[in-house]
Amino acid sequence: MNLSVKPMKKEDIKDVIAIEKSAYGEHHWSEESFMSELSNDLAKYYSAYDENGKLIGYCGSWHILEEAHITNIAVLPEYRRKHIGERLLRTVIDNCYKDMVKYITLEVRVSNKPAIALYEKYGFKSLGTRKGYYQDNNEDALIMWTENIFHKKFKTVYEKNILKGENID
Fold first, then answer.
1. Is 118 within 8 Å of 89 (Cβ atoms)?
2. Half-sphere exposure of 154 (CA within 13 A, CB side)
3. How high is the mean pLDDT of the chain?
């Protein structure tokens, strides 16, 4: 699949909300939340488009000093398991390198095994849980972190995955 990832624009938000609803049901971010994020200097949001220009996924993160927090990565259900989430994660990591951000963190549902496997593939480790974090069902969230992404150990894992995943661009 020919995939392009670009900075999110205000015009993308209606399609992003549709992805939010499909990914998170009733408990999704509002249009106002995304509008606020796009005007936040600490926030970095990206939209993924298929070869026909259809918005099929998005991601966001906050860059605060040496740390980035991934706020969300979501893909339309019919496009999942096609490495789009991986491409979005790589976009976040690449931007962390560009902005000299050393550490990346996120929360993920303990039941979201595919996402956990993706994050572990890229060197994230679980360092605890947030009990009852998700409002819709009181599910716990794993708190995941990377080591310093500029250290050789992380870079080796990252570069190995890029070489394996060259066909996902």
1. yes
2. 19
3. 90
Does the annotation mark 107 as catalytic? Answer: yes
**What's the whole-number mean pLDDT along residues 126-134?**
84
- Per-residue model confidence as pLDDT tens digits over 2-41: 899 999 999 999 999 999 888 877 767 888 899 999 999 9
Q: How many CB atoms lie within 10 A of CB 36?
A: 12
To the query of whether residue 78 is one of the catalytic residues in this protein, the response is: no
Query: In the chain, where are the structural domains located?
Result: 4-168
Pick the CATH number of 4-168 from 3.40.630.30, 3.40.50.720, 3.40.50.1390, 3.10.20.90: 3.40.630.30
CA dist 59 and 29 (Å) reads 13
* The one catalytic residue among 45, 46, 58, 119: 119
pTM of structure: 0.89
Percent of the chain with pLDDT over 70: 95
DSSP 77: G
Of 67, 107, 139, 147, catalytic = 107
CA–CA dist 146, 34 (Å, integer): 26
**Taking a C-beta distance cutoff of 8 angstroms, is the pair 139, 110 a contact?**
yes
